[in-house]
Amino acid sequence: MENLYQNPEVCFFDSGIGGISLLYECVRRLPRVNFTYFADNYRVPYGSLPQEELIKAVDTKFQEIESRNPVATVVACNTATARCIDFLRGKYKFEIVGIQPAVKPAVEKGNCVVLATPATSESRAIKELVEKYGRGRTQVFACLDLAAYVENNVFALSNERVKAFLPKVKADAIVLGCTHYVFCRDIISDYYGCAVFDGIDGTAEHLCKILGNFDHREPRAQKIAFSGGDMAKNRQVFNTLMIKNGSISQNHIS
Ligand code: DGL
Question: Which pTM was predicted?
Answer without folding.
Answer: 0.93
